[in-house]
């Protein structure tokens, strides 16, 4: 099988099981390097996109099992879209450097692992994928992906960068409520997201013009109403960006960025959960939390 054939399979197959097929360890040589831009993924009836908005439960309400399942459903939807869109990028940018394409394949494999972790844990909470409407926030950005660099700016630097914050926040809150199993899942995902952001930075950083810094280059690659606000969670944890190898000036600029989309974190929640005081790593969690 060629990489392009595999990418088409992930994009066009309607069933969840097909989208979870892992990458091969060996690929047939590509002969056609014509870019292919597929406008929307194949989805079975229970996986179709919806414009209906479903709010993710507040952090304070994750003491309830049902709300944990709803939160994981939200995250699982993001993982499925990421699988599809990195497959999309393999087709849209067939002439990308081999290291970048191999990185996208590895990211797809890890996103598939994340999705499986979420699906299994959701079922234990009584929630099945597709029980709730599925938004298409990642796919809405398709018009921005004119170049490999713009794709990396939106998907890797922004969406996956923001997930560094979200994975940390939810790992710590699940731990606070004694759910160490789900907390460990979030930290597994956090560790992988560090790698994902690093891979995206390869494409982004290699294209920075001599007359621009990283932040200016990033701003030139995204289009309003998409703003840098999408590149961080509601609680910004700059240490996570340093772990991913982001430029220090970029980290500072992102941290200070605000616009009309900037929300306000419930300060009582931050205080209650101790969010932002420390960054959990998988090995640290394993060393002091009991197994459940």
UniProtKB/TrEMBL annotation:
Q: List the InterPro entries.
A: DUF455, Ferritin-like_SF, UCP012318
Pfam families to which the protein is assigned, alphabetical: DUF455
Top-rank taxon, per record: Bacteria
What is the name listed in the Swiss-Prot or TrEMBL entry for this protein? DUF455 family protein
């Amino acid at each position: 099988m060629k990489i392009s054939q595999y990418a088409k399979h992930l994009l066009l197959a309607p069933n969840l099981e097909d989208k979870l097929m892992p990458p091969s360890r060996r690929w047939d040589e590509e002969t056609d390097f014509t870019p292919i831009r597929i406008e929307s993924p194949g989805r079975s009836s229970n996986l179709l996109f919806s414009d209906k908005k479903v709010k993710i439960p507040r952090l304070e309400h994750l003491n309830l099992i049902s709300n944990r399942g709803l939160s994981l459903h939200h995250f699982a939807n993001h993982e499925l879209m990421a699988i599809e869109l990195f497959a999309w990028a393999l087709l849209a940018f067939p002439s990308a450097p081999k290291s970048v394409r191999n990185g996208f394949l590895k990211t797809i494999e890890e996103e598939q692992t994340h999705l499986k972790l979420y699906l299994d844990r959701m079922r234990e909470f009584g929630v099945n994928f597709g029980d709730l409407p599925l938004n298409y926030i990642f796919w809405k950005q398709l018009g921005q992906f004119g170049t490999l660099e713009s794709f990396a700016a939106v998907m890797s630097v922004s969406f996956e960068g923001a997930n560094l914050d979200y994975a940390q926040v939810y790992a710590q809150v699940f731990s606070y409520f004694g759910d160490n199993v789900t907390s460990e899942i979030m930290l597994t995902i956090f560790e992988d997201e560090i790698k994902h952001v690093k891979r995206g930075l390869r494409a982004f950083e290699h294209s920075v013009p001599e007359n621009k810094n990283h932040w200016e280059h990033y701003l030139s690659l995204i289009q309003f109403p998409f703003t840098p606000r999408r590149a961080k969670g509601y609680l910004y944890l700059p240490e996570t960006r340093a772990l991913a190898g982001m430029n220090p000036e970029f980290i500072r600029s992102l941290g200070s960025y605000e616009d009309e989309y900037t929300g306000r974190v419930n300060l009582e929640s931050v205080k209650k959960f101790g969010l932002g005081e420390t960054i959990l790593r998988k090995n640290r969690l394993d060393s002091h939390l009991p197994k459940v």
